[in-house]
Amino acid sequence: MNLSREQCLNMKGVGILLIMVHNYVDLLMGIHCNEMSYTQAYTDAFVSHAFSSSAFWYILSYAGWIGVPLFFFVSGYGLTKKYGSNSELKVFPYLKSHVIKLWKLLVPVYLLYAVIYHYVFGEYIWWKAMLSVMTFTANFYGDIFFDPGVYWFFGVILQFYVLFLMFRRLSVRWLYVLLAAFVVIHYIALYFTGETTMIWVRHNFTGWGAPFILGMIAAKNGFDIPERWKLPVCIGSFCLLWLCLTWKPMVPLAELTFVVFAVSLVKMMAFKPMAFIGAISASIFVVHPFVRMVFYQTISPIRGQTTHPVTMTALYIVTALLLSWGHHILLKKLSRPSSAAGQQ
Predict the structure, then answer these.
(1) Residues 176-188: what's their mean pLDDT?
(2) Inter-residue contact 17 to 282 (CB < 8 Å)
(3) Read out DSSP for 9-44?
(4) How does DSSP classify residue 67?
(5) Residues 6+ apart with CB under 8 A from 229
(6) How far apart are CA 109 and CA 327, in angstroms?
(7) pLDDT tens for residues 289-304?
(8) Are 201 and 181 in contact (CB under 8 A)?
(9) Of 91-100, 115-124, 289-298, where does mean pLDDT reach its minimum?
(10) What is the DSSP letter of 204?
(11) How far apart are CA 145 and CA 41, in angstroms?
């Protein structure tokens, strides 16, 4: 499968918009999702509201997390296209560059978040947990409190950067075996373990390996959607996603189903505005928890304010996008001197 840069950016744009809005409206709607574990009561609550006048918000609250696997798919695809056939890949420079990239994104915004959360709003911060997040080790503690919760992603993506070194030379046949193994792990965690184990599985590569491996398979041309099948696959996978999100036996297939839907969608249509959002998605990912925290601590109904939820959400989205755009521009300017020095 050959995906253009614009198509990959469109997938990232869709993914980050879902994640950003989901992480804000979940508390407002009071509907919990089944991203890290599975609770039938959450699914029942969602189904009971899915056809109400507020269905749009409940869908985002319950199912918006499904944007996450798009990033793992694109990562697996991009790494394989870039390094898969590189026989001279050096492990240390490869890992060093990716760790530095993650630190540049995570550490400055995370420190600012923690300082304002603790010293301005007076909320408790467990500094040991914060240090473990910045060292990408928090994912190994099943009961650790991520604050903000989305930063678990950095530990998982670093795990995949390491695992890619072992997977990149595998044939498509063996990659499919790995994909099936990750799905089986998800089923075992879902049906034969407790919630604590399920959360641990989902905080590490074990819970997200399937979309990452599918990205590698796509890059090796082992997965594609023929031209004449794009529309049927798009419609069919979208309908199937409902079962994956509401019927327990289908839950472990939700990520793969949504990836197939997103790939078929971007192969039919791609939008420049969505590509722009995808281009700044890394900045949106680290900035939006900061904006969410400020909004929750100031104009949220949780704080007794009466601002309409739709108005609040619109303000939150606009603020997060503008700040993320500024963060993206700043990162590019700061990285230019080192890039120029490296070329000399």
Answers:
(1) 97
(2) no
(3) HHHHHHHHHHHHHHHHHHHHHT----SSS--HHHHH
(4) G
(5) 264
(6) 9
(7) 989 888 887 876 555 5
(8) no
(9) 115-124
(10) S
(11) 23
The helix or strand, by DSSP H or E, that contains position 335, with its residue range, turns out to be helix 309-343
| Structure tokens given for 235 | 């419609």
* Cα gap 79→180, rounded to integer Å: 20
For residue 213, give the H/E element and its range. Answer: helix 209-219
End-to-end CA distance of the chain: 36
What is the SS3 assignment for 129-172?
HHHHHHCCCHHHCCCCCCCCHHHHHHHHHHHHHHHHHHHCCCCH
DSSP state of 52: S
CB 46 within 8 A of CB 62: yes
Distance separating alpha carbons of residues 318 and 336, to the nearest angstrom: 28
Alpha-carbon Rg of the chain, whole angstroms?
A: 20
**How many residues are listed for the chain in this entry?**
344
pLDDT of residue 298: 80
Residue whose tokens read 């959400």: 313
Range of lowest pLDDT (40-49, 116-125, 209-218) = 116-125
In tens, the pLDDT along 151-165 reads 899 999 999 999 999
Angle in degrees, 0-180, between the axes of helices 91-115 and 127-134, rounded to the nearest 10? 150
Distances (CA, A) of 262 to 65, 74, 113, 158, 225: 14, 11, 32, 24, 11
